[in-house]
Design brief:
The radius of gyration is 21 Å and the shape is globular. It is an alpha/beta fold. It has a seven-stranded parallel beta sheet with strand order 7-11-6-1-4-5-12, sandwiched between helices. A three-stranded antiparallel beta sheet has the order 8-9-10, with no helix packed on it. Strands 2-3 form a two-stranded antiparallel sheet. The model has no long low-confidence stretch (mean pLDDT about 90). It has one domain: Rossmann fold, CATH 3.40.50. It contains six helices and twelve strands. Keywords: Electron transport, Mitochondrion, Transport. Heterodimer of an alpha and a beta subunit. This is Probable electron transfer flavoprotein subunit beta. It comes from Phialocephala subalpina.
Length: about 260
Amino acid sequence: MSALRILVPVKRVIDYAVKPRVNKAQTAVETAGVKHSMNPFDELSIEESVRIREKKSYGPGVDTIIAFSCGPPKAQDVLRTAMAMGADRSIHVEIKDGEEVEPLSIAKLLKAVVEKEKIDLVMCGKQAIDGDEGQTGQMLAGLLGWGQATQASKVSFEGEKNVLVEKEVDGGTETVKSRLPMVITTDLRLNEPRYASLPNIMKAKKKKIDKMTASDLGVDLTKRLKTIKVIEPPPRKGGGKVEDVDGMIAKLKELGAL
């Protein structure tokens, strides 16, 4: 088995610390003038890929780590961040600002890149915090006919073919084994992503970003789903105080909870 070729999809999303607001037309979340950053789950994927190389946890080593993003021109910012964290180079499929791409289309783009770049392992976040759909990794594994392990909290290797992935389940943990090539989706307990140092940020500016379009990869981005309306959740009502257990029970009965 040769050294690993790892693909890490990353997405530019509204920063996790920003409270999103629905636009006036109620068609989407307002993104103009809002701080964006790399999807947190994708940061975990980059970090884990770099750790596999640094810790030499895979015998033959890591040949290359490629970051991929499908997004507007500003998506190059998260690709530069990924390269500053340790990715070797990047691929950017550019779309118009404000254009949305469905998970199945992203999975098809990734499939094309996997085949073009002879990828052995795809390490992607379990979901993006904007759409919260959590579908791309599973769809990609299905399109490729590869094994998959989702919501990884620990990744280790057994020989040159087998991958052990541990994940949290209700009441404990579950460990699954699969063979390379495969798709892994990452969860928050997997690692603590590093901060990109200034020297690495400067080095990332010299690393290569291959720009291409969906048509270059033979993928049609036509949407199959239409968002009808987006509304904010109703404001939470204030709680009430009760004097004792009997008062609590009476209140629960009044609310129809008992």
